[in-house]
Amino acid sequence: MNAETITAEGHHSERSFLANLLRMRETGLIAIILVLFIVMSFASPYFLTWVNMRAMTMAFAVEGIVVIGMTILLISGGIDLSVGSVTALAMVIAGWLFLNGVDPWVASGIAIACCTGVGAIMGFFVTRVGLHHFIVSLAIMVIARGICLLGTGGRPLGLYTLPPEFKFIGQGSLGPIPLVIVIFVVIVVAFDFLLRRSTMFRKVFYTGSNERAAAYSGIRTKKVVFLTTTLCSGLCGFAGIIYMARFGSAQPTFGIGMELNVIAAAVIGGASLNGGTGTIFGAILGTVLLSVVSSSLALLDVSVYWQDIIRGSILLAAVAIDHYFHKRTR
Amino acid sequence: MLLQISGVSKSFGAVHALSGVDFGVRAGEIHALAGENGAGKSTLMNIIDGILQPDDGRILIDGKPVKIASPTEAQRLGIGFVHQEIALCDDVSVAENIFMSATNISKSFLMDYAGQRRKAGQVLARLCDIDPATRAGDLSISSQQLVEIAKALTLDCRILILDEPTAALTEKEAQLLFGIMRKLREQGIAIIYISHRMVEIFDNCDRVTVFRDGRHIVTHDVADIGPDDVVNAMVGRKIETLYPDKLTDPATDTLLSVRGLGDGARIHDVSFDLRRGEILGIAGLIGSGRSEIVKGICGLEPAPEGEIVLAGKTLRRDEYRDAIGDGMVYLSEDRKGDGVFLEMSIASNISALRPEQVAGRFGLIDRKREFAQAEALGKRLNLKCGSLWDPVSSLSGGNQQKVAIAKMLSVDPRIIFLDEPTRGVDVGAKAEIHRILRQLASEGVGIVVISSELPELIGLCDRALVVREGRISGVVAGDEMTEENIMHLASVMDAERVTANEKVGQ
User: Do B140 and A5 touch (CB under 8 A)?
Assistant: First the structure.
C-alpha cells in the first residue's frame, strides 16, 4: 500500500457528511430513479398517475420481500436460485390444502413452514455436507418446480371459494393504500433496522466478509449460513401466500426467472456475491429501479424482448461502475 | 503454572502433528515458542484456542483440567490469540473488527457503534494512529496486524498467544509491541510468543521452548542458553550443514538488469543487477512490495515504468507468456493456490508451462514424452513419489515444491524467481532445495529468492536487496548480511532512505 492511501485513511473521518452521502450507493440509485421519474412524466401522461404508481408498487412489493431474503443470504456469502420455485411451491401447497378442505390460514401456515423446511434442507446440504449454495439451490429449484407441476398436473388451481378476509391480504386496502404495500414497507423497515443495528444480524456481515475471522471470534458461522438460507426460503413462502391471496389462484409455473430479477436487484443495491456487503434499503432501491424501468418501457410501447436486454444492461453497468469505484478507493 | 499442557497428541490422517507434547506457561512470563515450519507450534496453539481438539492429553489452567471446545470457550477461560495470518473482515470498520468477539457474546440486542468506536480508539491509541471508523480492508498490512493485536488486547485475557506478530510490522511498531508485552507481563499475564527471529526471542522473552517434528525438544531460561542452541534444537543438527557453500569468486557479467521499475502504486524506481552465478535474495516485510517487484519483472502484474534488460536485450513484458519465452519463470509463494495443480498428476504439472514440448503429432499430448520429461527432471531434483501419474496432492510439502521447481526447469529458464521457496517444507527437503538452487546457479541460471525467513536468506544468498514500501532501501552482501542490518533496512525511516538508495547506485 502506498503513501497516498495511508494519508487518505488518516482523513477518513474528516470527510464531510455530504461527501459521505455522495459516496453511498443509495444516493446514486435515488438520483437515477428521480431522473427516470422526471423524464417519464414528460414522456408519458399515464406515468405519474395514481393508477400507474399503484400498479408499479404492487408489482415490486411482493417480489421485494424475496429480495430481502436474498440480500441477507448474499451478505452471509450464499446465493439461492430456487426462490421462484419455492414461492410457487408455497402457493401450490396452500392452494392444494385449501381445496382439500383445510382452513386457508392454517394451509398458509403449513405452506410457509414447508418452504422454511426446504430452506433448512438446503442449509443442511451447504453447511453439513459442504456443497456449494449454487449447486444445492439449482437442484432445489428444479425439484420444487417439479413438485408444483406434479401436484397440480401443470394447471393453475382456481381458488374461487377463498374467504374474502383472506383475499384481503392481497387485494384489500387500508384507506387509499393497498395492504400489500403496507406489509411490504413494514417488513422492509424492520429488516433494514435489524441489519443495520442488531448484534444478531451483524454476525451475518462478519460471516460473509471473512468466515475465518468470524469463526476465530467464536461466531458459529455454519449456523449463521444455515439460518440465512432458511430465512430466505421462509420469506419466499410468505411472498407466495400473498401472491395467492392476490391472484385468487395457485400457479405452478409462477416465478420462473424470478431469481435473476431478485439477485439483480440486490446486487444493483450494493450486495456483493462475495458476501459481506449489502443493505436492505439499497436492495429495495434496486428493485424499484428495475420495476420503474420495466413500467416505463411498457408505457413507451417498447417490445418485451427489448426489456430483457435493457434490464441485463443495467445490471452489468451498475456492477461495473461499482467495481470501478471500489478499485479506486482501495 | 497458569497453563499446563501435558501429553497432548494430534494427528491429521497419517501425519502426527503433535506427539505427546508437554508445555507450560507461568503467569507473568513471556515464553517464546520456536520451531521450524511443521514443528507443531500452530497446531498446539489452535488446540489451546479451541479451534482444534486434541486426540489425547490434558490441558490444565490453574491446575484444573479444562476442555476447550471452541474459541468462545477459550475466550471465557481468558485466552487471547493473535493469529499468524491476518483474519479481519475487510468490509466492516476497525472498531467492529476489534469487538467482534464481544458482539458475538453480547446480551444487548442493538449494536453500540459509538461505544465500540470510542473504546477501540482508546485501545488503538496505545499502539498506533488508526481511525477506528476506517474500513479494515482499506488499511495497510502492517496496520491490519496492529488491529489484530488491539483485538486481542481488548479481550481482557490472562493468556495471550502471539503467532509471529512482527512478520508484517516495522521495527518501530515491533518495539511498541514489545513495550506493551512487557507491561502485560507486569500485570501477571502469561504470553506465548512464537517467532523465528532469535533477536526478538533473546531481547524480550523469559523462557524459550523448542518444538521439532511435533515433539517438545527443550525448555530453557533464555539467560542460560544462546541463539545457536535454540537453532540447533530447532533443526536437530548443527546449523553449518544446512546451507551450501556460497560463491567464492563472483562473476562480473550481468545477467539481468532492472532499471527504474515501477507501477505507480506499490513499487517505485526499483533498480538492481543480477550477476551470473549468484543467488540474489530479496528481503522486506510482508506487504513491502517484494513479490510485486518480481511479478512486475515477469509481467504477472503490470509495472509499466522502467526497463528490464536480459543478457543485453531489452524486454517487452506485457504478459507472463513473454517472460517465459525470454527464459524467466516465477515460483509463487502460494504453492497450493497458484503454484501447482493439486489434483492433476505430477507429470502433467511438470509439463504445464509448455505442453507443446511433450506434444506429438496434431499437437496432442504424448504421454510417453510427458513421462520421460517428468522422470528426467524428477531424478535431477531427487523427487520422491509413488508414480508420476499420482496427483500432486499425494506428495509432502517438500516434494510438491520440487514438482513446482521441476515445472519451471522444464522450459530451461535463464532466470528463476522463487517466492518463499521453502515455506511449509520440512528441514530435509529444505536443505535439498537450497542445494538444487546453488547447483542451478553454478550452471549459470540466475536465481532470485524472496524469503521472510532471514536466516535462510542470509545462509543461502550471495547478496540481498532489502525492500521497504516498494523501494529498494539497501543492498547487503558478505559480512553485512545480518538479521539486524536487514531488519533495520526493511524498516528505516524516510530520512535514511536517501543514503540507502545511494548504496544501490554503487
Answer: yes
Query: Could you say which of B71, B91, B138 has the minimum Cβ distance to residue A205?
Result: B91
Task: List C-alpha distances in Å: B332 to B324, B335, B436.
Answer: 14, 6, 17
The string of pLDDT tens digits covering residues B364-414 is: 888 888 999 999 999 888 888 888 898 888 887 788 888 999 998 998 899
| Domain-wise residue ranges, chain B | 3-238, 254-327+413-505
Q: What pLDDT is attached to residue A10?
A: 36
Strands B64-66 and B254-262: unpaired
The secondary structure of residue B136, as a DSSP letter, is G
Q: Is A305 exposed, middle or buried (0-12, 13-18, 19+ CB in 10 A)?
A: exposed
* Gap from A317 CA to chain B (nearest CA, Å): 22
Cell of A81: 436460485
* Residues of chain B contacting residue A210, judged by C-beta atoms under 8 Å apart: 87-90
Residues spanned by the domain of A161: 47-256+271-279
The set of cell numbers assigned to B220 is 530453557
The reported pLDDT for the residue numbered B425 is: 73
**Exposed, middle or buried: residue B31 (CB in 10 Å: 0-12, 13-18, 19+)?**
buried
Q: Which CATH class is domain B254-327+413-505?
A: alpha beta
Q: Which residue of B has its CA nearest to A208?
A: B89
| CATH architecture of the domain with residue range B3-238 | 3-Layer(aba) Sandwich (3.40)
Of B71, B91, B139, nearest to A218 by CB-CB distance is: B71
pLDDT of residue A22: 62
Residue B292 touches chain A, beta carbons under 8 Å: no
- Is 90 exceeded by the pLDDT of residue B469? no
Number of domains in chain A: 1
Angle at B204 between CA B203 and CA B205, to 5 degrees: 115
Cβ–Cβ contact A20 with B under 8 A:
no
Is residue A62, in this structure, part of any structural domain at all? Answer: yes
